[in-house]
Amino acid sequence: MSNGDDTPPDADANDEAAPAADDTGDDTGAELATTESLRDRLDAAGEALEAAETEADLDDVEALLDAVEADLAEADFADGAGDEDGDEDDPNSREALEADLSDLREALAEARGPYGEDVVSAIETAKTTITAGDWTEQGEGEVVDAVLAFAETMGDIEADALDVPAVDVDRVNDTKSALDALAAAVSAAGFDADADAETLAALIEATDGLESDLEAAQEWEDLTVRETLQAAGYYDVLGHTKDYPPEWAALKEHEQRGNTEMVLLALDSLGSAFMEEHCLESLSRMGPVAATDEAIEEMLARAKKRKRLPIEILGKMGATEAVEQLVAFVDADKDPVLQKVTFRALGEIGDERAVQPLADKLLMDNDTVRPHAARALGLIGDTRAIKPLADTLKADENENVRAQAAWALRQIGTKRALEAVVDHGSDGTFIVQTEIDKARTALDAGIQPA
Predict the structure, then answer these.
(1) Which of the four CATH numbers 3.30.160.100, 3.30.2350.10, 3.40.50.1820, 1.25.10.10 does domain 350-450 have?
(2) pTM for the model
């Protein structure tokens, strides 16, 4: 039976089935063809990268890699594709292809340039290095020399577009403006990565030399402790001395000369407990002479940890900056030794902010600490302490507390303060009676504070 055309029915069926058989053929074979194709394209991109001579050639390679990456992201990899045993080291696996693609992109990035902006970036990095460096005096000179050498090298590079300015650098502070001018000259040249490849390579080499010279310049952290002290002139004060170690001998001389900076340098540099103690004792003996901003800051940091000697030093310095921190220790009733040192320091500083906190401690239970509170109030000399001190003199059962209260009132020295002592009458304790007698003598003589 005819179906209305010349084609046999069986032939139509065969023609329609053939394409379907191709599309639904063995899945593994199709995957193998896909992975092998990606591998071939990556290999071709690698060969193109090796042959590339211009930025345009590298752009073409990048386009190839972009295309492979896009197809790789869409590929459907079957387990073990490309390897019957499912070996993880299959060169056509997704992981292997992605790794090789990444390697080629890195190689492409390395092959590009250099560009003018790479030179400018290297100069900016040098500026940051100089700014962040803690240079010794020798190191500062080496930094200046490095910048001058870099400018000279740039000037020797033959390039019509590069107009290297003359730079005048005598100190480290001058290097920033000099490097800014050199970077601006590179930017203004408008170099082309292909046409000016040799010039750019020479400039990159010059910046590498600048970086190396800066790395070699001497910083304080590069020195040993003794070299650091030597470079800072710490030992310059030594004459013919037999004291040992020389660091201690120099410390004593710096103390005599009031060289707080050198004492702090030794404190910071020398790691021994022996020298730390002697440095702190020197600062304590120097008193107000040692009260530089740096010394006060250092002692505050140490006092914050409730270190007693730094607290004592702050008192000797008369450091009003320490009052708030020291007042916080006034109520440390569980550490009476800390309280005694703190009271004394606050008294020596003499700031009125400590009057009320100290007056409150006249009522504390510890009768070995109360006398120190009274004495500190006398050292401050504020008249607001007269009443609490007079009450203490009148009512405290401890003779040492009464004696210190009477002494403190005499130190305040106003007529009202002296009368508060005399009005106590007599005291069976010799030290208290002595203070009363001295107050009466001062009152009779009309002695008043200036």
Answers:
(1) 1.25.10.10
(2) 0.57
